[in-house]
Amino acid sequence: MTRLEPAQPAVQPDEIALAMDRIRPYVRQAPVTEVRAGGLGLSHPVTLKLELLQHAGSFKTRGAFNRTMLAAAADEIGPAGLIAASGGNHGAAVAYVARQLGLAAQIFVPSTSPEIKRRRIESFGATVNVIDGYFDDAFAASVVRQADTGALMVHPFEHAAIIAGQGTMAVEIDDQVDEYDTLLVSAGGGGFIAGQAAWVQDRRRVVSVEPVTSRCLQAAREHGGPTPVTVAGVAADSLGTVQLGALAWTIVQSYVDESVLVTDDDIRAAQRSLWDEFRLVVEPGGAAALAALQSGAYVPEAGERVVVAVCGSNCDPNSVM
Amino acid sequence: MTRLEPAQPAVQPDEIALAMDRIRPYVRQAPVTEVRAGGLGLSHPVTLKLELLQHAGSFKTRGAFNRTMLAAAADEIGPAGLIAASGGNHGAAVAYVARQLGLAAQIFVPSTSPEIKRRRIESFGATVNVIDGYFDDAFAASVVRQADTGALMVHPFEHAAIIAGQGTMAVEIDDQVDEYDTLLVSAGGGGFIAGQAAWVQDRRRVVSVEPVTSRCLQAAREHGGPTPVTVAGVAADSLGTVQLGALAWTIVQSYVDESVLVTDDDIRAAQRSLWDEFRLVVEPGGAAALAALQSGAYVPEAGERVVVAVCGSNCDPNSVM
Question: Is B321 close to A317, i.e. CB distance below 8 A?
């Protein structure tokens, strides 16, 4: 039996550097902030990348801009504009991008997506279609509609331009933080973590954080490739992907160094501590990476310089207090 | 009739530099973030200093650390620890400082102070005494108690060490922002703005922002010195001071370049826009400086580089949504 070599990474650093130049006028360089030992219940210092302050409330805006601007440059966008399916954050990002670039947008969201995310999508002027069920149901409906309208499908993670766009966060961190060893990133479909890993490659350690209730990246590592998992839990609307993206896997398999899991209780505790100590409203998926440190799922070595992505804000503040 | 020369400024830049060195291990360097033209409803770019991410939710922590650490070094703190009167933010800051330095603390708050601020003070382990009425009533009660206990009175603004501590925010901004022209700061008793003005002196313009409903700094400028005003409005719990501090005035009279007013509606609109575009929960007093730009109360000249202090987070998120 022959063992297959890992596939070429779907995204190279130069594509991420070009994405950064392309989207820079449109995205925020979200600030970083240092937390000293003792803060957030941690016995070691940590740097937070406050990506939740991004336009539309999450990192998803980066990939959506890069994908859409590349397609526009290639004249691939017709009068129907953009179409996407999303648990919420990607939909809000695509709706925001469409508004900023003067395009129409239709977003398909599952009925399980929180009301606050739907309202945010609508606030950017996009049409929201609510589909009974989960992300896969919404995605199936969006594919049918796309065949009718010819709109540009902006997939939440399974596209090289999306992954390259998400990776611009790590480009910024290199500009903002003198040196660091390890980046902790939450993972759903894998587009976000793949972007970071494709940029830093072997220069830094990249650690994946998933809820125990939706662990498709860890499952892919165990299985040797993407494989379906069941999906549930408090972060399901942002991290609840059944199967890791195939493109993300080409990067994750080489450049994600470790995969850890956190419980729903760990995530809730991380949300509460970010509220208590910083008055930041962070959604479950956005707090998962911090939860890995607080729960001990990931224990840095002495002197290890850790950056944590705090990457989404779209939730009801009353749920974090 | 002889015209009096302005009094010597009560605080010199070297005292602020020493305060920065003293408190640096205990305070956060709150991040700054750039907002491009078009963001937050503004037609020009602006830099936000996110001081609301400070420990205990406002800049007050800076002054409270400096005052307490200087007093501790001079052996002025007995077993009764610290005592303070406060609409809320200063009380939370003193309670936080007491906890971090292992001191007891009693905080006197007026019954008009929001419940959320009282809870925050208690969360740091201080004893809260609620006094019927307004800040002046709470302050009077704290003075009586102080005579009994001998605790160190930490006044919210009328002390050089408090003003020097608050001024460390401007020291940080010099490190974080390459160059800028104008700093917009909200004003209550004047300790915060005096600290910034004492640091930047004539190097930058300092603009004071007050609610039309509590305008003791503007009144002092018109009157030629501190004079009482009536106090009301949405920001009264943080900015509602009857009379500008005498020490603050020694600085304000020389180094505050302009004084503008905003309405309660302007403040509410600024709070909502910070929530809508950044998902930041900002209390009325913390959003007032931004409101001055959004309402046109302050109109920068072409190319003027403006920094806005967003300086307090202690309010109910449901009030900003």
Answer: yes
